[in-house]
Amino acid sequence: VQTVDEILKETFMFNKAISYYDADGILLNLDITYAEAIYDAGKTYNINPCYLASKIRNEVVVSDGGSGSVSGKFEDYEGIYNFYNIGASDGTNPIKNGLEWAGSADGTYMRPWTDPEKSICGGAMWIAEKYIAKGQDTGYLQKFNVNPESEYPVYTHQYMTNVSGADSQGYSTYLSY
After folding, report:
1. Nearest-angstrom CA–CA distance, 111 and 152
2. What is the pLDDT of residues 142-160, one digit of tens each?
3. Nearest of 115, 53, 54, 126 to residue 81 by alpha carbon
4. What percent of the chain has pLDDT over 70?
5. For a Cys-Cys bond, which of 7, 31, 129, 146 suits 176, CB 3.0-4.6 Å?
6. How far is the C-alpha of 71 from the C-alpha of 48, rounded, in Å?
7. Alpha-carbon span 7 to 115, nearest angstrom
8. Residue 169 Cα distances to 10, 42, 142, angstroms
9. Which residues contact 8 (CB under 8 A, 6 or more apart)?
């Protein structure tokens, strides 16, 4: 947990208990830190928690705090959180796209993600099932699926559109260690 928290240093999540806004704009608090939630998600889904923390940092941390994906205040998606930006494809409004996916009430991956802990844990479940278990078990292979052993055809099924995403995520992990 301490190592995960080190990765979160200089972000809104560092050494902090989870607090979030519900759909009515009421500030709520959970009795768990961001680092503990990430650690628990990694342990539950057999994913290195440092990898998850780096991925979250890479996806939703901006210079002035967290992106709209994790504010709980994004217009028309109040109280919805997406710490991995799943479904936030490029286009006119990637944050809206990701929050629409996270807000789905179909029940898969613990959705709808109405608090950060659900998003962190449900997103780890999704990554474990859709990528790691399918042979795309590194940040590089999630961006550039060049693994002929993957269950998806080579050069398809990419997690992110950011060409330097795997590099910046790896560098973030390196600096933390």
Report:
1. 25
2. 566 566 777 766 656 565 5
3. 115
4. 79
5. 7
6. 25
7. 21
8. 15, 16, 12
9. 14, 15, 34, 35, 38, 53, 57
